[in-house]
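Late entry, evening session. Most of the bench is empty. Finally got around to the prediction I had been postponing all week. Sequence below, unchanged from the version circulated by S.P.
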Amino acid sequence: MLEGFRETRFEHAGVARPMLVTGEGPGVLVMHEVPGITPEVAAFARRVAAEGFRVAVPVLFGTPGKPLSVGYALRGLAGACVSREFHVLAGHGSSPITEWLRALARSLHEECGGPGVGAIGMCLTGNFALALMMEPALMAPVLSQPSLPFPIGGERRAALHVSREELENAKRRCAEGVKVLGLRFTADPMVPKERFDTLRRELGSGFEGIEIDSGPGNAHGIPRTAHSVVTNDLVDEDGHPTRKALEAVLSLFQERLRPKAPRA
């Protein structure tokens, strides 16, 4: 379906989905953004695999390999809004599909071994890694432009799209040493500042937020429309803040997922 990937399927609780896999090493789960596994998402997955990881990209919606367009994105967004697997306005509960994704994370760890697995969500799936922390194997959660719940009203702007149980679990695991990494552009209306404020307040030092200036007159000329930090709006140049954000993601995976050498 896409060069460098092999296609497989994963089934849990009677639900089977296709999945693209590439690379070898500790497992990393890439949860793609709207509208699907675009060439930019595939390029990101290859970049992670090149660091020495087995990357699994389940097909949650859309057509793998189809390029991004406005119409394609709008159709994907509309489909997610009516899907029973995505609760786009739920401020204090995760989408049902996260149960399936937890099982996938657990299976990926059993297959790949190592200290655990990493997971990155983007846009519509951006906050899913918080819910996936209920799976003990998840050791490196990344929230890239976490856009759920849709920020309609003050309460949803600050909400995290997880249940109280899932949030308390994330807080406990952060206290035990797990670090959550979050990425956003400052002018992105889909990812308000209030959401990262909540993450800092709830997770404390367990949360690292990378907020890239996309306001008027910013030093790197990043447009106010910038949204996808490590895919569509990545500028892969030394010193660029999006490149630094990508490097932070890769560093987290290396730090948390590589088996530590025993002391002599």
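Two things to note before I forget:
The chain has eight helices and eight strands.
The longest strand covers residues 15-22.
Will write this up properly tomorrow.
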